[in-house]
Write a structure and sequence with these properties.
single chain; 16 helices; elongated; Nucleotidyltransferase, domain 5; alpha/beta; five-stranded mixed β-sheet; 11% strand; four-stranded parallel β-sheet; Rossmann fold
């Protein structure tokens, strides 16, 4: 038993009576405490006045005696004394009072006594005061264990950033990782696109039996709620992954987090910054990425982030043509998007003065197709609109482009979806050309 503070009492008094007296003293104002229990025994209070105070004080002690006795009856001895002595169990990796088992059990007990067993108001008042103080003690423990910041990384299965397929989280305190969490996540319908799989190497086989985002969200939430959250590319990727996945899964709640982006601090890719800072990285493994960007942020906090060296390395890699995103196709730009109807070859071909969009090919194939279409007098565009006439698709066509084109067809517009083979056939039929565009390595369009 923990003595809240000492006072003189008869030797034969029970442990429950002692703690009941202590609790009465703790929760009463000084003027309502008899002289004998005061820390300073000197008082100008009259004997008669103090006698009245003692009568009222005894009622408070009796109320606490009843409250304490009931707690001891309803809980195992160890937990009961934790409630009574305001000494919550110390539990690692708990960042919210509502996650603490002692708090949950104590709250459930109060509800039981109030709503089911219908305890009297005096006991309910004692329980309320004890519960509030117990919560404050848990908050002290949590604040001691609270990380300085938490780093996070999501990988997603498709261009829809809510299709989370893995998550990694690392909690930092005083420059050290105090907790880490990793899980594969089964994305919606367990569907993947080639470009994202090519980046992080995850696929539907690996996540077939993985938990859903809704199932892993409690683990994510308890680590990031009310914290500073660090991510590399926070504002264009990870923040959207979290918010879109929550929305898709009908998860509502204010996480009260403050995002910080290490990509903005480093002004470079994660792998470049880690190379300069000698940080180990298994790029696009979400836990490795989370730990790495957390280490970069810790360097930044200590004014040790070598931004100039990072920029030098970035320039070197750019000069050498090293780009981790090189598998993403470049968007069509420049003169190829400006139609030349006047100089078109064979104006009887089906693409003359028609709007055409290309999707699902690598940059080389897409550029070659665009040049041929311009020569045929087509109006090459980058996005499907209501006036698009042809959508030429590769194996990894953008789903949104296909969806929009199907809507055009459904609405009765002059619209068709064709493959590269069909394009070559239509071109040959109307121009007599045997110079087919050959489909090589294809890339998922983003």
């Amino acid at each position: 038993m923990n003595n809240l503070f000492k006072f003189n009492h008869p030797e034969k008094i029970s442990e429950v009576e002692v703690v009941s007296t202590q609790l009465a003293i703790l929760f009463l104002e000084d003027k309502d405490i008899p002289i004998q229990y005061k820390r300073r025994s000197k008082s100008s209070r009259k004997i008669k006045e103090d006698a009245l105070i003692q009568v009222r004080f005894k009622k408070h002690v009796d109320n606490w005696n009843k409250t304490v006795s009931n707690i001891l009856k309803k809980h195992d001895n160890e937990q009961a004394w934790r409630f009574i002595n305001l000494k919550p169990q110390v539990i690692d990796n708990i960042y919210s009072v509502s996650e603490h088992k002692d708090f949950v059990d104590f709250t459930d007990y109060i509800v039981l006594r109030r709503d089911v067993q219908l305890c009297d108001d005096s006991e309910l008042g004692c329980l309320a005061m004890l519960h509030t103080s117990f919560q404050k003690e848990i908050e002290k423990v949590i604040n001691t264990n609270k990380p300085d910041f938490v780093s996070i990384d999501f990988e997603h299965a498709t261009r829809f950033k809510g299709s989370v397929c893995s998550v990694g989280i690392a909690s930092f305190k005083n420059g050290e990782i105090i907790d880490e969490y990793y899980s594969l996540v089964k994305p919606p319908q367990n569907e993947y696109e080639w470009a994202t799989t090519n980046k992080h190497k995850l696929n539907s086989t690996q996540t077939e039996n993985a938990p859903s985002f809704r199932e892993v969200f409690p683990e994510i939430s308890k680590r990031i709620k009310d914290n500073i959250i660090v991510a590399h590319g926070a504002f264009h990727t990870d923040k959207h992954c979290l918010e879109q996945a929550m929305e898709y899964n009908d998860i509502v709640g204010d996480l009260n987090i403050n995002w910080i982006c290490t990509q903005e601090l480093c002004k470079s890719r994660l792998d470049v910054a880690c190379k300069v800072c000698n940080i180990e990285l298994e790029h696009h493994n979400s836990l490795s990425d989370a730990k790495a960007c957390g280490m970069l942020y810790d360097l930044y906090l200590n004014d040790e982030l070598p931004i100039e060296l990072i920029q030098e390395e970035k320039a070197i890699q750019k000069e050498l043509g090293l780009n981790s995103n090189s598998f993403y196709p470049k968007a069509l730009t420049g003169k190829v998007l400006k139609p030349d109807f006047e100089n078109a070859k064979n104006k009887d071909n089906p693409f003359f003065m028609k709007k055409v969009v290309i999707t699902g090919f690598d940059s080389t194939i897409k550029e070659q197709l665009a040049i041929e279409l311009k020569e045929l007098g087509a109006d090459v565009d980058t996005n499907v609109g209501k006036r698009t006439n042809f959508l030429i698709i590769g194996d990894n066509a953008g789903p949104s482009k296909v969806k929009n084109m199907k809507m055009n067809i459904k609405d009765g517009k002059e619209a068709s979806i064709i493959t590269l083979e069909e394009f070559n056939g239509m071109k040959k039929l109307h121009t007599g050309s045997n110079d087919d565009v050959q489909e090589g390595t294809q890339t998922q369009e983003i």
